[in-house]
Amino acid sequence: xxxxxxxxxxxxxxxxxxxxxxxxxxxxxxxxxxxxxxxxxxxxxxxxxxxxxxxxxxxxxxxxxxxxxxxxxxxxxxxxxxxxxxxxxxxxxxxxxxxxxxxxxxxxxxxxxxxxxxxxxxxxxxxxxxxxxxxxxxxxxxxxxxxxxxxxxx
Length: 154
Ligand SMILES: [Zn+2]
What we know:
The protein has helices at 63-73, 81-97, 105-119, 121-131, 137-149, and strands at residues 11-19, 24-31, 37-43, 50-52, 58-60, 102-104. The chain is of the alpha+beta class.
């Protein structure tokens, strides 16, 4: 993706949203070289992305469902809706960029968890407990310890 102003390839996505009617994603980009901003439209796969669930059944990828799961994890947490929408956008960017027609549900779950970990620890653990189906409190504590390990040690 070349910058239309200076022709350099290095730029970052500053905003990203799906344009449903045109089946594409609108992205605001910022050039690392000259700092100018520009908009690109990228086609997303027209064949629907299928999610492979744990029981091997397939269902069509559903943004609302993903959003709902993250909203539940963030219930009564100081997390702006804007941040949640950004996470969904980032997750979609990652899963659609793979260019595959099917994706394991746990792969999506791991991507979501990576983003939630940086956003809110409670939301992260809640989401992880649903996604990984913690059987007992020990599994839950292991996950919590893993998270706490990412904190800098004194
Ligand atoms: Zn530029």
